[in-house]
Design goal:
alpha+beta; two-stranded antiparallel sheet
Length: 199
């Protein structure tokens, strides 16, 4: 039921993402396109429920997008995952709000998750060229984090503070935020110098 919080307000977002990928123009690349330094965040505060959904190119969080094979790369992936597994600290949620994580989900090819198959009927990849071409298509690794919180005192959540996200992942220069809260819906670009948004 709670998953509907994000599904309804952002139902049109996948269409915008699809167009950005189709056009691939420099002008249209801002929403949904894979752009290094730029992450996307959907935030919904509805009653006691707070839902945050972060999508970022892996480059912003770990410094590369290829599969982690070296010990150093694996350590970077593990460190980023550990930081993402502590959303209260990452999003600097005030203790007074009493927010507890009710669910969280992290997905990325770098975490060993398989990328979503675009062609389910592609079982006939017996020729090495076809398989290599299909893998090359997924060079732009993304990291997806989805958090749901239950907040005892949601009125204490007047702001969404993204300062810690920028400090933890300094390669992230901008976060495109879709924010829905008691005062309505807004789209805003957060940066390290303007990282606090009002709900």
């Amino acid at each position: 039921m709670r998953r509907l919080l994000l599904a309804l307000p952002f139902a049109l977002l996948p269409l915008a993402v699809a167009h950005a990928h189709e056009d691939n123009d420099h002008e249209h690349g801002s929403l949904g396109a894979h752009e290094h330094g730029v992450a996307r965040l959907n935030a919904v505060l509805d009653g006691q429920a707070l839902e945050l959904e972060l999508d970022s190119p892996a480059m912003n969080l770990v410094g590369f997008e290829h599969a982690a094979t070296s010990a150093a790369d694996k350590a970077k992936v593990a460190a980023a995952r550990k930081q993402l597994e502590n959303p209260q600290a990452l999003f600097n949620l005030p203790k007074a709000a009493g927010c507890k994580v009710s669910s969280q989900e992290l997905n990325s090819p770098l975490f060993g998750d398989k990328p979503e198959a675009e062609h389910d009927d592609d079982d006939h990849a017996t020729d090495g060229k076809g398989a290599a071409a299909h893998e090359h298509h997924h060079d732009h690794s993304e990291i997806h984090a989805h958090y749901q919180f239950t907040c005892a005192t949601p009125t204490a959540l007047g702001n969404l503070d993204l300062n810690q996200v920028f400090k933890t992942f300094p390669a992230t220069t901008k976060i495109q935020v879709q924010l829905i809260g008691p005062s309505g819906q807004q789209g805003v670009d957060a940066t390290a110098t303007a990282a606090t948004l009002k709900f």
